[in-house]
User: Fold these one by one.
Assistant:
Number 1:
Amino acid sequence: MPGKLKAKIVAGRHLPVMDRASDLTDAFVEVKFGNTTFKTDVYPKSLNPQWNSEWFKFEVDDEDLQDEPLQITVLDHDTYSANDAIGKVYIDIDPLLYSEAASVISGWFPIYDTIHGIRGEINVLVKVELFNDLNRFRQSSCGVKFFCTTSIPKGYRAAIVHGFVEELVVNEDPEYQWIDRIRTPRASNEARQRLIFLMSGELQRKIGLKVLEMGGNAVVGYLQCFDLEGESGLVVRAIGTACTLEKLSSGSGTHTHPNTAPASNACNSPSKDGKESPLAHGCRSTHNSPVHSACSSQRLSQNFSVSVPTLIFTGMGSGSMGKDAGPLKTLLRQQTQTALEQREFPFFTLTSFPSGFLLHVGGVVSARSVKLLDRIHNPDEPETRDAWWEEIRQEIKSHAKALGCHAVVGYSESTSICEEVCILSASGTAAILNPRYMREGCLDLGGSDQRFEDPSPSSCGFCHIPYDELNMPFPAQLTYCFHCRRQKVPDVLFTTIDLPSDAAIAGKGCFIQARLCRLKKKGQGEANATAISNQLPFMEYELHTQLMNKLKLRSMNALFGLRIQISVGENMLLGLASATGVYLTALPAPGGIQIAGKTPGDLNTEQHILNIQKRINDTIAKNKEFYEVNPPDLTEEVVGSPIPEPRLRSRLFRSHSESSDELSELDLSHGKKDAFVLEVDDTDAVEDIHSLLTDASPPKGFYSCNTETMPGIYNWTSALQMFTSVRVLRLSNANLSNQALNKVFTDLCENLLKSFYFKLRSMIPCCLSHLVFSVAVPEEDLIQVAVTAVAMTFDKDQTQEKPAEKPITKGCSEAEDQLQFSLELCTDSSSINSQSSSKNSGVPESSHLSTRDRCSTWLELLRLKAHTIRRGSVKTSRRTQSLAHSVSSLEHSSPLTEGRSRSLRSSRSFGGSSVSVVKMTPLSFLPGTRIVKYVGIINMFFIRETTSLREEGGVSGFLHSFVAEVFAMVRAHVAALGGNAVVSYSMKDCVLMENPNKNQCQCLINVSGDAVIYIRETDQEVTGSTANIGLSCTSSADGAT
Amino acid sequence: MAVELDVFVGNTIIMSEEVYQLWLDGYTVNDAVKVRMEGGVLDEFDAKVDVVLSDTMDQYRTFQMCERLLHSPTKLANQLLFQIPPHRQATLIERYYAFDDVFVREVLGKKLSKGTKKDLDDISAKTGVMLKSCRRQFDNFKRVFKVVEELKGPLVENIRQHFLLSDKLARDYAAIVFFANNRFETGKRKLQYLTFQDLAFCAGQLINNWTVGAVDNMVEDMDVDLDKDFLQELKELKVLITDKDLLDQHKRYKHLCLDGKLSTLFGKQRLLMRWRLISRGLVNIATKLTNTKDVRDFFIDLVEKFIEPCRSDHWTAADMKLYLTHYTNSAHILDTFKYQVVWDRYMGVIKSCIFKMYHD
């Protein structure tokens, strides 16, 4: 008997009136864990009952402890009829199973009912006593810590990063069982909530087991998702990065130098007892095996990869495989390669890394696959789903190889389901990692002062191309790094990760979004899937084109945090790409955008084009000023550089039809123009340019980004406001053209942003960080966009700060001094060393001129119709990559921001509240504070339903209160764990189904995050955690019992 | 392209005081948007109507959800649904319970019943306060009245604790409750010139000096009901006008003191005449207060018996003050007058009420 769970029901308050006659309630509580149920006495006639129950003890397996939630049901006693349920509380007791996390759960929980929402609160105490050595119980994985945070959690050091872990569990969806016809909506919702709690518990346990097998003790970047597949079932899947974390003793910096281990035996140990890949990448044949089933006839496959600035075809089966053998230049790299290759998937869900971890970044790799969900559900064989994902991951892996990279960072997976069609997507950033970290180096974010002797400076090293110049996976413009002048860099760089903390940038970052809406015919089964998969490559291409144009328009040359979501609906496909644009000083300056008309004779057109050109130039100039993009040495570079400067000599091609698959190589560049050319040859193009220009830049005082922090802003103050916004648009006109639809969708996103700016205007100067948009097509003619982000204030003017805060701000002004210094240095070096650098660099140049020429076209080849029919799947995959250069560390990362001055505004304002304040943020840190403890992962799933939609204020009223309730429940759980904030908060699902005619609506929300205890930077002791006080009280109370 | 759903929810409540006020004032969403657009605050932000509309809708929804909590403000502090910083909580409550003086002036002294509630549209039309706002204010009065009705202890303190109001607002509510409970007549035309603040001040005086609570502070309704014993004792003051000696003596003493001090130039005769009238008036008010009907007419009596005569003689406020002070004090020197304590308790209140009610 490995564990004893104890629960005590203390009291209730604000209960609803259940007895109309007396206006009171006779409440009692049922406490259930597994199959055991206890009841409290009835506390008669009170809306604020004081049960003060005994300790209910459950003796259970630790396996159950991990899987099951504690279920607390509050009921109204009724002598004559059945007792009425008031509501429930599910408590995940997982946080009590780690030694370092919370030791007791204690606090007020909202009593939640899926029909009525929150109905009062209940005060509960929960404790767990664990016996025995847990590791002997292999079915359980108690003690493995889970973090949603996609970086090494603060206060920890990663001794070893073991790598990718994934798992999925499948079950029947209770909503689709026969019994659902005869039970109440409440019963059905509760069955569903409970099932998902169980499934996610089970999933976490299984992942934990894998981590233990690998020798790790934690999962970082844990991403859990639900796929509501309707009749074919319910899938809960998760991915993460297994690590061995060590707790840093607070205060002492991390001075363990990582250079202790010889690089040669890097990584052998951890992966040895880890799962050896059953699909070593040599044997691609296995790839086919999962799809041999009956379904195979329903699927077709199509694959290609897109890389921006160029579209190329990389063979799926074997074509790309040959390429990657060559380019490994250094011994170091080879070693890493070997080490990583021992892993099935060298993927990392992390998005930010300690300096020195990331050596080079290749570009974005992504893969999509359209699947038909099997009609016959078979919960005992989740293998089909496993196989699907396996396939996609293989694809990603091979793309990474094609880019000369051995690892994928910033990796994530997602799905979009409409009826029986499901699009599986995965994306990440191909990268080369420092092998040192693979075994026992330090991967700690805490020690920002740690610097490694590295061949390439950390400020630009990651921009250097990882692939072989002679054997480029796609055509790209290469130049010597503008920073170190030794290595080659691409002209644009797209990544899914956060901007490395030591990267050198100019100016501020900027939120860039590409939106696309495409009609599709309604269809069924295979035909439908084919239609969708045929559209995907075009969508990918167009999204990238948009991103590229917008990037140029802002005079920037790199994208971070790129996230492309493609959502499928019955009659349309939505594509939304969000990223944060940055000017990396290591990369060449982006050229302007030039408009070219196809019919030069026409005067009107000429005039029109001139006008557009002028507007574009104005916009670029305006953007430069707004984002303060002033590359230090622009003119000098252009004039004085001895390196044959490949200005962007390319143009964008609008029409897809021209890129037929017959063309193996299509040089469309005119070879003369310096600028990026947009051709205005049809109305589509004009529309596009208009939409390009109508993107309003944020109002003065506002910045926005979708990464952890805004590049170029460092002096955060502590005021923050996390928010969730959902908007659903009904398309009134059924016969919209693609163009009109695009406009509608673009306006929807733009208006949302405008709304945010307006609502949050009191926080100016302020930055919207971690803007995460998710789109869905819940029904025909409906477009749903849900956004979660955080608004954070910053100090515009450092001199305004109070003298008392000087010591804190000093750090950042120093950083800026440093920056200026290095900027100068860089300018110097570029003028003085330019000659020598070209000579010194070991890379021969002239021989590659031809390559360069070849690459100078943006659209080289596009083979869309490359079906491989024998493959049982439809896939699209895409890859992007580009170039850069940089200066010194002008960075936004956590160590710096933490040292920022802060305003006491928010913290002060909460001073006297009787409910402890819980801050929430999608970021992994809270400005002006230090996270001292992670008390557990929050992973909650709620269903809310109403049959009186009008009375609740329509869908908006309904969802508004539901979202507020979800926040309230998250805060209550965090407070009960003794935490005072949630970091890395995200809303992963928000599924809304409405039926206004029946006055009904149902909504499902899934949220997650890490509960933490933070202290304000200046404070010595823990602040704001009233729950902690409660904690000590309760433990003494416990001692008494 | 209809927006089917549009919500924006912050972890910490998001509200603008301007919109809250519009909501409280009873503006519909569309009217509120109009007002905001006209307000010009938005010009600097270049906000379009749809943006303002969406923002207003979100806030209105938030306020509607909060309204339930605002009915018992103590819940607002320990509810979990909204995370509201304490200073915001205070603003929400204070503003919610704030009222328009013009409106309250209309219902002051009326029974807080369904009947009065039905008349709210008339009051709304008359005062220009929107009906919705009238309803809220009226319901607030009723709610406060109901809660404190059954409580022991000082009225103002009870209101402050149960509704977390500021001292000023709690006092105003105490006045409203006091007026409603004693049903003082305030609606007559002659009283129209009095503002709510005048009357609230008087109520405060009465509560502090004439109620049961002024002597005993642990009785139910202590601050709401007038001290019956005291009212009984007031009858004894009759001697001041019935006893000829006392009357003359009193008159003489006062004249001694007042000689040459009043700025108004009255003839001595005129003053003497007034004196008789005023003195009789004030004492008569005192002796009649055992009658509930006369209690209701307390303010109208004060105006008719004292303020109007003085005003017709064009007394300045300063003169009036001086006069009343000496009138009160001179009674102390009377040898045979035995009701000094009652007299002081009575005149103290009368004096301050008249000071407040006497507008130049």
Number 2:
Amino acid sequence: MGSTASTLSKIPDVETLMQETGFTPAHMVRLYDRFKALDKERKGHLCPQDFGAIKELAENPIGDRIVGAFFSQGQETLDFHSFVRILAHFRPVDKDRPRDPNVPEPINSRSNKLKFAFQLYDQDKDGKISRAELLQVLRAMLEMQVTEEQLESIADRTIQEADLDRDEAISFDEFRKSLEKVNIDHKMSIRFLR
Amino acid sequence: MGPFFSPFDNLLCMLLGISFTVWFTLLLVFIIVPAVFGVSFGIRTLYMKTLLKVFEWATLRIERGAKEKNHHLYKPYTNGIIAKEPTSLEEEIKEIRRSGSNRDLDSSSAGSSEFEMSDIFYFCRRGVESIVDDEVTKRFTAEELESWNLLTRSNYNFQHISTRLTVLWGVGVVIRYCFLLPLRVTLAFTGVGLLVFFTTVIGFLPNGRMKNFLSEKVHLMCYRICERALTAIITYHHSENKPKNGGICVANHTSPIDVIILASDGCYAMVGQIHGGLMGVIQRSMVKACPHIWFERSEVKDRHLVAKRLNDHVQDKSKLPILIFPEGTCINNTSVMMFKKGSFEIGATVYPVAIKYDPRFGDAFWNSSKFGMVNYLLRMMSSWAIVCSVWYLPPMNRLEGEDAVQFANRVKAAIARQGGLVDLLWDGGLKRGKVKDTFKEEQQKLYSKILVGTQEDRSRS
């Protein structure tokens, strides 16, 4: 026991980080401890192998895609700031936030949560989910359990339903439209305990 | 040349000599003699009670101080930092779809199970949850305490809260490092030295009852001295279930000290790899007095050889019960991990033992990736004390139609229940290695059942 102030002082730029992400000081301390626990070799940053040590993540069919989402374009290291910024996507939406057009959208807005999910599908980051990319995700989630034909038919049907401009791919807007009614906030949020 | 020694020097030498003698006499009378005979003066229990009162005061002081200064108290949670919902894959996906479905709900498949783009949310969230907090990685770091025990190493942010507290902490440091630590190191060397010496001497005797009797006494005595070297305050429960000859004793593993704790209350045949250096010397001399099972490094890989030697030992009823730690590695004493099935295949009676350390006095967990052995022992010897409880559980045998893995799990569950530890299915080997792909298949199977199940319905209708 002790006060959070001294741990917080170990984190560089913690004030801006808290403003940006909306995490409380208690959350920041917890996440910092978690970051250090994952960084077993005490390098000061994380690399993809550190995530490999998390058993439940390795069990997850799209585990490696999620890890990929943390490491932006070709980077091999993840510092604490980026770690927290990505996790901020999963904070529950602040319902009382005033809709101020001048303030940039918070990281955990509905739209940004959708963007995060979108990039799990769209691996080549061209802004569209192609048929091939959809098949890849399906394969990851189903592997040996389903035949290739079944996978292809599922993919075809999904594109048919969501693809409104008939370009054989799903853009972000089409993605968003097809998920209009889903309670994103609930499904893409993690409740942090005090 | 003038007088070499001034009267002051003389006085100094005399004082040193006297204090040394007093020191050693006290040591002998209060610690070594009781260790030899297995009695106790109760000094350690008194010490423990005093310490607890001091810790309580310290905790209250910190809380009060924090309230006065309006600081945010950092209270560690052992239950995790996020609220995980225990819903299953099926329930969640149905719920996601029900809320997002654009089709009519009463169409052919209510709660219809065909692939939806939103299915990925479930996996995504679960994945990120495990990044933030997962069951297994927690077990390999030291347990977090609810109150402070005046050791800086268990306090994440030591800050000046009050003068009295800091003074108390300072006094604690002086006591621990200047008084307790040298005392304990002396005892440790005495204990180990006596062990090596006596077991070598006994080794010269012919095999027989006399030798076994003496060997037992010597082992017990030396382990008790080592126990006192750590100021270990151990409570043994249910001693009527103590392991007997021809059996195998299994226990949960937190640190190398477990061996000392168990061996000061009974005689066991140890199993392990032969090391070099000091450990090797101790091992070699121990085996002269009574049969332990030491393996060469090359033999360890050969599972059949290991099993055969264990079996041979167990068949011989005159040999001591074997002591084995089936988890294979040190766990932080909040849970019990998967037991390796080797020792459960032999078919001997298994005597389970649960060991639970009280973390308030010192963290006994050996994090081998963080500390080496010597560093660890020094930390142990400069803590307040090692307080633990040992429960001897009733013997278990493999039942008809039960295979080694099921038997191992049954024993593990009994140990976890008794010690108040969490019973986990995960392999302790995961501390260092990666998860096998078979686990991923489980998730895939579950998910495909939801989808493919209705593909078949569709083709039927």
Number 3:
Amino acid sequence: MKRSLTQLDIQENGIDDKSGGWLSCFPENFTSLEVLNFANLNTDVNFDALEKLVSRCKSLKVLKVNKSVSLENLQRLLVCAPRLTELGTGSFMPELTGRQYAELETAFNQCKNLNTLSGLWEATALYLPVLYPICSNLTFLNLSYTFLQSLELASLLRQCPRLKRLWVLDTVGDKGLEAVGSNCPLLEELRVFPADPFDEEIIHGVTEAGLVAVSYGCRRLHYVLYFCRQMTNAAVATIVQNCPDFTHFRLCIMNPGQPDYLTNEPMDEAFGAVVRTCTKLQRLSVSGLLTDLTFKYIGQYAKNLETLSVAFAGSSDRGMQCVLEGCTKLRKLEIRDCPFGNVALLSGLEKYESMRSLWMSACNVTMNGCRLLAREMPRLNVEVMKEDGSDDTQADKVYVYRSVAGPRRDAPPCVLTLSGL
Amino acid sequence: MEGGVAYENDLNLKETELRLGLPGTGSTIEKGVSGARNNKRPLPETREEGGANGKPDAQHDDQENAPAPKAQIVGWPPIRSYRKNSLQPKKAEAEAAAGMYVKVSMDGAPYLRKIDLTVYKGYPELLRALENMFKLTIGEYSEREGYKGSEYAPTYEDKDGDWMLVGDVPWEMFLSSCKKLRIIKGSEAIGLGCGA
């Protein structure tokens, strides 16, 4: 165990911990931890070990626990670590006695340095007021695991005037987003996740109106990730007119290939407006019904674009070609379910060496096309993953990236590395 | 540029000879995407973990006209797996909260009981609960011999109306097919143990 380990962050890994005893592995004299994040761990942890660890690590600034840590136990942790700057709570299920609630309030009151708050699993409006004492200093609030309605969010946001980053579920609805626009003038980043992404019968969630409302109130917005079920070209044009400084624009209209629901036209003009207006755009994710025109616009205007994600879009090879030709700073291109084939793939021969990677899946690329690419560009790794039962000639999933180390030797059997030979 | 193509209901891809699959293929991809645009639904399929890049499932011709429920395209919408896993339990919890009550009858008992199967994590817990409820011993289950050495055996009626021995199938399968329970005793139970 590294004596001076300062950060343990297993946030993004889907770990299935079998024993839960890992916290006890930190030795008694280990006190250097500054960051401890196990928010996405699936299993229970030894709370005693956790409490002891938190108590003795006086430099701990970031603590993000998982769902297994109850509110009652959270209070004990907060009392040990009032100097935290970032907190991820465990379960926020409202199960406290009156006295316990008061103790929790007091504990939060002591945390004068908190600027980031997340977790809040199973939180309901009932207990949100316990957070009010720390809200005024919050710059990042992650409510993406909390099923809040619009009014509940509004009450909370009224306490958070300094918010710069907000992550929510679409349960808050357009009304909730209006509250964002009204209460958070300093907002720079908004992410709205779908609470029920796979249920098409749902008639709620957020629409174009919500994001438009945010754009009127939050002129500094430069990062958006928005999952919605309807959108219009006009709305997007308004949004970028209000907020021209977007660096990251990720719009996910959840029904693939869906047109502007008012005009029934493709969403080409929406993304045309985005790339024309937002000159600083670095990352773009497109969705909805899109023709090659979208890609013509992207190639023409998105000169600072580094990452592009495309799904269920485009009409022909020309679309992808426009992007490869026009986006001089392109580094990462990921494409799925688009009608781009070998002509498009091979038009980017020289381009791929200046890029970090290309991913194409469920497109029209063939094994022969990939072999040709590999042959022409020996400094690229061209990897193909085939689907069960697919045609021999189809290259179902293609991953292309430059490498000075040659083909990888640790690929699983499903990955075919094509060489030029 | 696509000036000439109409966008009323669908892109009429066949007419314009724009195909989303290789020529001659079974239009697996084509149906996936055009299906979505036509509001026709591809086959349901299981969700896949991981990032944004997967492929729609293969579809069959006869599904084109069926008003099938909206399918889940693999890896779409592009939500990270730890987030998906975090949200799903909400629905499952709501369903579980509703409970799954089934009747339990025992030969010779004056009235039936009811238990909520969802509160048990597996067969051992269920059997202990039954033993407690009816003040009897059910004994050890073995695949070969059923509940041998016991005066009682737990059985259940499945979706097909057949009476089955509790314990043969995986727990989840049992939960989804059990309609009612019956504890049988005496000679009937022994008969079951002899591979009848």
Number 4:
Amino acid sequence: MPVWLREYSWRQSPSAVYLSLPVRGLRVTPNSIFCTEQYLKVSIPPFLFEAILYAPIDDTNSTAKIGNGIIFFTLYKKEAAMWDSLTLENATKEKLQCLRENAVLKAHERAKEETEAKKVTKQEHKKYALEATMKLEEAERKRIEDLKEKERLKVTKELELWKKQQQDAEKQRRAQKEVELHQQVEQLKEKKKEKIDKTRIPSEVTSKTRLKTTRGCHGFHSIFSENLKEEQLPAPRSAATIKVNFTSRVFPTALRESRVAEEEEWLHKQAEARRTISADLSELEDLKEEEKNPDWLKDKGNKMFATGDYLGAVNAYNLAVQLNNKLPLLYLNRAACHLKLRNLHKAIEDSSKALELLRSPVPDNENARVKAYVRRGTAFCQLELYVEGLQDYEAALKIDPKNKIIEEDAEKIRHLIQGTTQDS
Amino acid sequence: MSVPSGPERPQVVAHVQQALPFTLFDCKWVPRSARLLCLGSAARGTGLIHLYELRGGRLALLSEIEKTKPIKCGTFGATSLQQRYLATGDFGGNLNIWNLEAPEIPVYSVKGHKEIINSIDGVGGLGIGEGAPEIVTGSRDGTVKVWDPRQKDTPVANMEPVQGESKRDCWTVAFGNAYNQEERVVCAGYDNGDIKLFDLKTMSLRWETNIKNGVCSVEFDRKDVNMNKLVATSLEGKFHVFDMRTQHPTKGFASVSEKAQKSTIWQVRHLPQNRDIFMTSGGAGSLHLWKYEYPAQRSKKDSEGAEMGVAGSVSLLQNVTLSTQPISSLDWSPDKKGLCVCGAFDQTVRVLIVTKLNKV
């Protein structure tokens, strides 16, 4: 239930109504005031003031001043007449309701119109701004184009001028040369007057006819100049050869930095392929067909290991490795042989090689990797490098945690290490 | 001296563009004129020389000469200004010198190499420098030969691989250090990244190095002075500038290198009027204009007291992309500063003007 504000005072003039509403201590915002043509409401929850006005007012021009705990309304009447009272007295509830609803509707409509109008103006503003920037950019572009054009024209003119100068200079030179030549021909003529030689005259005639052509005079003159110059020029160099060594390059194509890595790889692969092939050829000519198969050799090796012929097994594995050095099992089994033969360093080497080849941790590999770690660990321990041995055993345990034997051995090694550290 | 920026930078203005009906390998200005030559190969496998003149805003074809073998490269470097004979190297390994007025029979001809002549250079002509005019050719058969037009059939110097050694293609040659009648060097670049400097006075190898990428083009900044700078461009978008004034006994010449772009740098050409500015042309159809700045001290002593050179720095003045195909040949006009011609593999020849070079 709202609290009605009933203390208000008002006075009027023929054209306006002045209403003063005390709102002591209340925060009034422009949103609290709602006014339409015939309805005025001030709502500051929980306080409420509403009035159904006696006659319609011009609500767009009417004002409300908020300040000093009072709202002061200046309502301009639509019709200039004196009101009997501020509000309509005999307003029934329904009428009130109706009026209220109408008022709200009207307000809504007005709000809508306003937003529409705002949108339209905003759009127009944007368009204008866009056009303005486009014009500016266009102007800038034109300016640059014009500059370039001007340069071009200027430069073209200069070129034409220069060309003209050249042509004039050439003409002058030619004229000069003709005069010189004339003089020289005159001299020759005089010389000939002393010696009448028939063979000379035809050449003179031909040379004279060549004078007529523009280039011909050049030729004639140039013979003179060439003779003169040849005296000044040094003799041709004495022929010699310089032997040249090139930075070696295998490929016939040009060297490019970006391709160097690829080329290195290719060469490396070629070298490896060549090595295996050449190894085959030298020693294995008298072997039987099956003995050239690495798998067959591996089986042979395994059999020999089982019977205790460790050296024979190592030989078999060696041969297999020569044929195909990418099979990890060969190295693995050879490591086992070396362990039995107490070639501990070799055992470590082979297990390491096997582990390298078994790098990817897939389940198939697990078995082989465990074995490799264990063998290497054993070799380390037998060399009394217990720490490394323990590392390998722990790696093996990581792969296969359920293996009791490995666990026990690992424990033993740990005790050994602790034992030695306690002593020292 | 700082590089100008903004509107003060040199601009590359495309003046004329002409589509040609043949593959263009080399283009050269005819000295003391507004004419240029285009050398190349026709579709039917014969060589072509086209002579154009710059008229107004276009190129007018003055004459067309056809030869049996496609022509790869040419130079005016070894002829006098009056004669202006063109020396060309072709796909068959022949070196010919032509008089363009009477091109039916060459003035000098020799089958110098067994395979295509990739590059040619001339020195001693055009009133530049002293000493006998000589032409050097570098070929796919791995040899570099120096010819004197007065001596028939045999070269005056021959740089060939040692007996039994496999050969590498020589891709580029350049003359330098021709400051008096005796001194001359030839620099050659090969496809395995070797750069070798041969001294013709002592007939020996003076310096060699390997820049790790095939060498597409070498040029000294001036042929007729004590050798000052050498620019070598290579595959993979790199080029090196060597300071040639100070040679260290083991380390050779100091250099600075720059990676300009991702594609091959086909050519480098120094501006005839300013030897510190040069242009490189690239495999992506772009041209870059560079300026070299000398260091405060060009040489210093190393720990053992031997002199060694100090390389400066290179800054980019301008770059422009003209074509989608590589620009394989480039030539500055010796008469007008900033005028240059370039030919690309899209069968067009372009005449360009580079502005504001005075202000750099």
